[in-house]
Amino acid sequence: MKKVLLFISALVISLNVLAVELDGVKVPETLNLENQTLQLNGAGIRTKYFLDLYVGSLYTKNKTSDATSVINSKTPVAIQLDITSKLITSEKLTDAVNEGFEHSTGGNIAPLKDRLTAFIGVFKEKIVKGDDFVMFVSPGKGVDVYKNGKKLTTVKGDDFSKALLGVWLGEQPADANLKAKMLGK
């Protein structure tokens, strides 16, 4: 009987460890898209000026704390953004993405300009608290972008995918603390 109770206690404790909730967002342990199942690598809260803006989650095939291996991954990777603030607008997110690509590419966005414009188009529709965006990176294909579970576009090219991942995981990430959390640190 003691063994059964010990097993049940261990199971309950492990289930609580697996449940991730940040800023009111329940972050799933797995993400299933495009016939792929990815596991949560890490998640954190994007803050700016002491305000929580969104929960950012990184999904990978195999957990890693190495940003470079994620950016150069030969297997699918996804980043999910769950909007938690009413302060996030289309204009502000567009500006943030443009700034992120500037940093990610070292200012050399010219080769990506047309694709970046297409990518930013997914943020033109009104953004409200509770919206979620998923950027699903498939090496050799590009990035499939979803809003609230609906696929909006595909942006082709591994160069674009790497620049996009660099916005959150590069040398000059949007938020260094969020980068660390997404990498499970």
UniProtKB/TrEMBL annotation:
Signal peptide: 1-19
InterPro entries, per the entry: Chalcone_isomerase, Chalcone_isomerase_3-sand, Chalcone_isomerase_sf
Keywords, in A-Z order: Signal
Keyword Signal: yes
Pfam family, one: Chalcone_3
Record-level Gene Ontology MF annotations: intramolecular lyase activity
Domain Chalcone isomerase: 19-184
Name the UniProt record assigns to this protein: Chalcone isomerase domain-containing protein
Species of origin: Endozoicomonas numazuensis
